[in-house]
Amino acid sequence: MAGHKPISAKVVSPRGEATAARALPDEVPVALVYNGTTQAVMMATPCDLEDFGRGFTRTEGLGAPDSIEVVPHANGIEVQMWLPDDQAEALADRRRAMAGPVGCGLCGIDSLDQAVRDVPEVTHDLTLTAAQISDAMAGLRAGQALHDRTRAVHGAGYFDPAVGLTHIREDVGRHNALDKLIGAVGDCSGGAVVLTSRVSVEMVQKAAMAGAPVIFAVSAPTTLAVETAEKSGVTLVALARDETFELFTHPHRIQTGPLQKDAPDVA
Length: 267
Known about the structure:
Elements: E1 4-13, E2 16-25, E3 28-34, E4 37-44, H1 49-59, E5 67-73, E6 76-82, H2 85-91, E7 99-100, H3 112-115, E8 128-129, H4 130-142, H5 145-150, E9 154-160, E10 164-171, H6 174-185, E11 192-195, H7 201-209, E12 214-217, H8 223-232, E13 235-241, E14 244-249, E15 254-255
């Protein structure tokens, strides 16, 4: 699926009014179904849904599904997956059975403990440069075909220091875009996850579950995201725009020039 449709709109400007076709992203209910039982219903952009299913399964700590099938329905889409019995039993501990808005990646969990769940510590000794951060951010922005058409979706990319940006996935939901990316890449331990969005705690949790040692993001993190990145061993680079970025955790993976010890506070 293309993930977008042309919609007629009236354009109003100081020069007058005109009618134009505006490409807007599709947003449909996508049910994630495991062994015949719906565990999550997310509002998502209906493309790369097999990647979405694989990535969601991995970031939930369930490994990989044995099989996956995307089944369209009149009122939405099912991503039907089958897990081994032991993984299906583990899923009961983190059951999601609630439709959530695209801005929230924690809708439907059963307890506060699940919201701040522990994730594996990332220990990969990857080293990146400031120039690579700039290249990765520019490459993600340049490669967002759906965003160029709609101006209404988030992007997530994977940066391999040996070859550059290798994968890009987009969705109306930032968590969905990251799940799609992880589903496409699988093991992210050899590179950096690159995000167009702010960095919330679940974005760090998902990256750590995929083994990513570094996150680059265009927007700011939350305090809990910083705490989680510090605890899980993830290097968090945020507010990365042009040649400027802010380094919040585990700076040993980023090669930079001399840093000011007493830099002024920023708003």
